[in-house]
């Protein structure tokens, strides 16, 4: 099982973070609470998912694997699609390297790896490429997400 499959297995199907949450609004179905989450928790998750989906800033969530084959994209929001031209079905399961090209600065990417391996936050920018091949300056703020058990320790 690869990283992406492992991530998908952790998701409770009805709260998959995708646009269906936004489309369904904030009401909970019996199906949601059948998965052992309280109605309040489901409402809260839907609220957060809606906010992330509709944020003006591009949001990308990847698996944590920094070694080859590297992180795989598990979520992109609408702003990511506006910025890059890649929709969710085109981006999810692929590596963020799809955005790289000739002018992408490898030294920044190496620093990103080192900072993230140290468990730190990474800020940086370099040239990336949209789906149509045009260049843009991509500025990142990347933060590791730990599972709730670790974060609460
Ligand atoms: C959360 C996250 C987001 C990333 N987003 C981008 C991105 O938008 N553009 C990019 O060029 N690389 C991005 N990367 C970096 C690549 O996925 C990869 O880690 C980087 O190229 C270094 O790995 P490599 O030496 O195997 O290429 C991201 C990495 C992570 C962990």
From TrEMBL:
Keyword Transmembrane recorded: no
InterPro entries in alphabetical order: PAS, PAS-like_dom_sf
Domain PAS: 70-95
Claim: Cytoplasm is one of the keywords in the record: no
Listed SUPFAM superfamilies: PYP-like sensor domain (PAS domain)
Lineage: Bacteria, Bacillati, Cyanobacteriota, Cyanophyceae, Oscillatoriophycideae
One Pfam family named in its UniProt record: PAS_9
Keywords: Chromophore, Flavoprotein, FMN
Name of protein: PAS domain-containing protein
PROSITE patterns noted in UniProt: PAS
């Amino acid at each position: 099982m690869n990283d992406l499959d492992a991530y998908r297995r952790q998701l409770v199907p009805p709260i998959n973070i995708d646009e269906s949450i936004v489309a369904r609004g904030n009401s909970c179905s019996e199906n949601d609470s059948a998965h052992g989450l309280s109605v309040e928790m489901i409402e809260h998750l839907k609220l957060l998912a809606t906010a992330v989906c509709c944020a003006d800033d591009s949001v990308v969530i990847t698996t944590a694997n920094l070694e080859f084959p590297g992180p795989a994209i598990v979520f992109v929001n609408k702003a990511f699609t506006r910025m890059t031209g890649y929709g969710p079905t085109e981006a999810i399961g692929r590596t963020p390297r799809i955005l790289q090209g000739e002018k992408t600065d490898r030294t920044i990417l190496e620093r990103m790896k080192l900072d993230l391996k140290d468990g730190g936050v990474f800020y940086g920018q370099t040239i990336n490429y949209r789906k149509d091949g045009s260049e843009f300056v991509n500025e990142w703020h990347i933060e590791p997400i730990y599972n709730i058990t670790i974060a609460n320790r």
